[in-house]
């Protein structure tokens, strides 16, 4: 069994609780306008454009229609290959086995509290995580999932059994605004929020805040009221993330960052609806 991995971040302090190794899975069903990692969305089709634009000779395509070979030691990380890609992918994607990933985790083991599976959208490769998580737990490490909530967690009981918490993105609570922002519906996302909270598995909710009107106040108010009944049993964190242009595709860089006052107002709203831990990051 193998998974498509965009990259592995050995040590991260912003992807869950404590220092964690982050597995960035390739592939996503959403097309969020403010996506800061568009190279994690698609899959290479072997067009070869990236190899043609590589200035260091780190990419070599053996035959038309095949994925170029990436020679890591030649790579200068200039980003030209990713910018040239028409499939929202990367020639640096690796197909890694459970053993490959466990070997990396074991190397990092003494410096981390656990792993976080992110993306892209990691639940598209849920079967792989279901095999990986019990093995990671045997190492004394915790397992978190960072997800857009598009996959129905009610159908993943074995994965949830070994998962220590889910960090769920809720882009917009209004269905039409969510569709306009992501190209996808949000019914499953909201059902997941309630289901995971009821199971004690919802560790954190995240919403990106922009100047553009995608209903930020409506979303924060609606999400916190939706989840407030579950706060008696668990402290669900709410993370408000101001829009940043880093990595965002050129056509969407004008969405704009919210003012500090606007963020503080949204934080106060979440607190007034019963949330105890509301972060602006």
How would you describe this structure to a colleague?
By secondary structure, the protein is an alpha/beta fold. It has two domains: 224 residues, Aldolase class I (TIM Barrel); 41 residues, Alpha-Beta Plaits (2-Layer Sandwich). It has nine helices and eleven strands. The strands form two sheets. It has a nine-stranded mixed beta sheet. It has a two-stranded antiparallel ribbon with strand order 3-4. A hairpin with a 7-residue loop joins strand 1 and strand 2. Helix 8 runs parallel beside helix 9. The longest helix is centred in the last third of the chain and has 13 residues.
What's this model, at a glance?
With 281 residues, this protein is α/β, with parallel strands linked by helices.
Architecture blueprint of SSEs:
Blueprint: E1 2-12, E2 20-25, H1 49-53, E3 59-60, E4 69-70, H2 80-84, E5 94-97, H3 98-108, E6 114-118, H4 126-137, E7 142-147, H5 157-161, E8 165-169, H6 175-182, H7 187-198, E9 202-209, H8 216-227, E10 237-242, H9 260-272, E11 278-280
Parallel strand pairs: 2-6, 6-7, 7-8, 8-9, 9-10, 10-11
Antiparallel strand pairs: 1-2, 1-5, 3-4
Helix pairs in contact: 8-9
């Amino acid at each position: 069994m193998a998974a498509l991995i965009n990259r592995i971040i050995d040590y991260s302090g912003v992807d869950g609780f404590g220092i964690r190794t982050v597995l960035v899975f390739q592939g996503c069903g959403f097309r969020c306008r403010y996506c800061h990692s568009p190279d994690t969305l698609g899959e290479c089709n072997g067009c070869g454009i990236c190899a043609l634009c590589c200035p260091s000779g780190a990419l070599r395509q053996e035959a038309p229609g095949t994925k170029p070979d990436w020679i890591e030691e030649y790579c200068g990380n200039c980003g030209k290959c990713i910018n040239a890609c028409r499939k929202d992918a990367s020639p640096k994607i690796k197909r890694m086995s459970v053993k490959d990933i466990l070997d990396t985790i074991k190397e990092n083991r003494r410096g981390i509290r656990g792993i976080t599976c992110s993306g892209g959208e990691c639940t598209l490769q849920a079967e792989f995580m279901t095999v990986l998580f019990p093995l990671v737990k045997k190492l004394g490490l915790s397992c978190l999932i960072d997800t857009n909530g598009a996959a129905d967690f009610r159908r993943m009981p074995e994965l949830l059994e070994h998962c220590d918490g889910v960090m769920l993105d809720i882009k917009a609570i209004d269905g039409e605004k969510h569709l306009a922002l992501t190209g996808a519906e949000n019914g499953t996302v909201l059902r997941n929020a309630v289901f995971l909270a009821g199971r004690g598995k919802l560790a954190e909710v995240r919403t990106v805040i922009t100047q553009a009107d995608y209903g930020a106040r409506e979303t924060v108010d609606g999400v916190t009221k939706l989840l407030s009944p579950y706060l008696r049993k668990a402290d669900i964190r709410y993370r408000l993330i101001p829009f940043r242009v880093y990595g965002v595709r050129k056509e969407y860089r004008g969405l704009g960052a919210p003012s500090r006052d606007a963020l503080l107002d949204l934080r106060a709203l979440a607190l007034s609806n019963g949330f105890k831990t509301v972060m602006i990051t």
